[in-house]
Specification:
Distance between the termini: 59 Å
CATH superfamily of the largest domain: Dihydrodipicolinate Reductase, domain 2
Number of helices: 11
Shape: globular
Bound molecules: nicotinamide-adenine-dinucleotide
CATH class of the largest domain: Alpha Beta
CATH topology of the largest domain: Dihydrodipicolinate Reductase, domain 2
Order of helices and strands: EHEHEHEHEHEHEHHHEEEEEEEHEH
Largest sheet: 8 strands, mixed
CATH architecture of the largest domain: 2-Layer Sandwich
Oligomer: single chain
Number of domains: 2
Strand content: 25-35%
């Protein structure tokens, strides 16, 4: 291990832990995994084996061992959201920085508790894994908007949807464990990305539908409206408050992973299924394909940003727990609007 290599523990060795492990491998000497925790000892051992890391069957065991030997610089929490409060508290109490997967929590009440833990232990950095903030095309769209290519921004359009029939019997669609369905799972990424690109939103309307009886929503269509963008947003004067955001989230439909930024002089369209192409269209419909770096780098960029924020106190695009709370509130509002007759 090189000097300065950032040593991670992964807590929850399921599906998304694999994406983080791939990102660690892609980082060369910048990152490594020194411990893996899962309630399922076999899952923990399997992932740990790839890195010569230690494995534990609980977060409590990990932090007990780390107190004595100090072998982690940060944790990535990849459990279902309902399991996070105790783990985050153990980490922050010990001064171990946290990157917790999205959504911050499965309920607004838990999200508030997590945000207040982050405040209580504010000397220890804590972030939420809203990885679409690290998609290169997102930054290219904002930069070129700042340069005037699409004029003044009018609308942001996004779909994160696909067919996930296996979710019908997993914790993902269990109202108690997941708190929400497609709109919390995929839509929390959307809401956070809208906040990152355009400004924090108000939710104006929401329609949810449920394909699976007694389970969480399988589809959501939501209308957002932005408030003031951040002063540092690269779109600058071409982005003002009042941008409309349309969000489509789905677990039981054909796959679409797209983000569009529409201005009064043209638009950008990014399709994750064509990862190296950003399409610009002018008002006459003439299109230009701009080559961009693939969104595949987002997990690696996010983890390196985590390491840089902790080790070098670098400025970061990572979502804070406060950002996670804002997205959680947006879900709560949408859920109430969707229930209205
Ligand atoms: N950023 C992304 O694009 C993205 C993609 C997929 C999933 N996610 C998020 O990642 C989280 C995990 O999703 P997943 O698909 O990996 O789920 P998963 O069910 O595949 O894995 C979760 C793992 O956590 C373990 N676990 C549960 N409780 C635990 C505890 N208390 N301590 C230790 N381990 C525990 C389970 O045994 C399981 O192995 C979710 O919040 C999900 O929304 C993010």
């Amino acid at each position: 291990m090189a000097d300065g290599t950032f040593r991670l523990a992964i807590i929850g060795a399921g599906g998304i832990a694999g994406a983080h492990a791939g990102a660690v491998k892609a980082s060369g000497d910048r990152l490594t995994i020194t411990a893996v925790v899962d309630l399922n000892a076999e899952s923990a051992q399997k992932l740990a084996g790839d890195f010569g890391a230690r494995s534990y069957a609980s977060a409590a065991e990990l932090f007990k061992a780390n107190k004595a030997e100090k072998f982690i610089d940060g944790v990535v929490i990849c459990t279902p959201p309902s399991a996070r409060i105790a783990i985050v508290e153990l980490a922050l109490k010990q001064g171990v920085p946290v990157l917790s997967e999205k959504p911050l929590a499965h309920t607004f009440a838990d999200a508030k508790k997590l945000a207040s833990l982050a405040k209580k232990y504010k000397k220890t950095p804590s972030f939420v894994g809203y990885c679409h903030r690290f998609v290169p095309a997102v930054h290219d769209m904002l930069r070129m908007t700042g340069e005037g290519k699409i004029g003044s921004v009018v609308r942001w359009e996004n779909a994160f949807a696909c067919d996930l029939p296996g979710h019908e019997t997993k914790w993902f669609s269990d109202p108690k464990k997941a708190g929400g369905g497609a709109y919390l799972d995929m839509g929390s990424h959307s809401v956070d990305l809208f906040h990152f690109m355009c400004g924090v939103s108000t939710t104006l309307g929401a329609v949810f539908s449920h394909k699976w009886k007694g389970r969480t929503e399988t589809a959501a269509t939501v209308l957002l409206k932005s408030g003031k963008p951040s002063k540092t947003n690269a779109a600058g004067a071409n982005l003002k408050a009042g941008v409309a955001g349309s969000v489509v989230s789905g677990w039981a439909e054909s796959s679409r992973f797209t983000v569009a930024l529409v201005g009064d002089k043209g638009s950008f369209f990014y399709d994750y299924e064509k990862p190296a192409e950003l399409i610009f269209k002018d008002l006459l419909g003439k299109s230009e394909t701009i080559t961009v770096e693939s969104h595949d780098v987002r997990f690696a960029r996010q983890l390196v940003a985590f390491a840089d924020a902790v080790q070098n106190k670098a400025k970061t695009n990572l979502a804070s727990f406060e950002d996670g709370l804002v997205a959680a509130k947006a879900f709560d509002v949408a859920l109430k609007l969707a229930k209205k007759k």
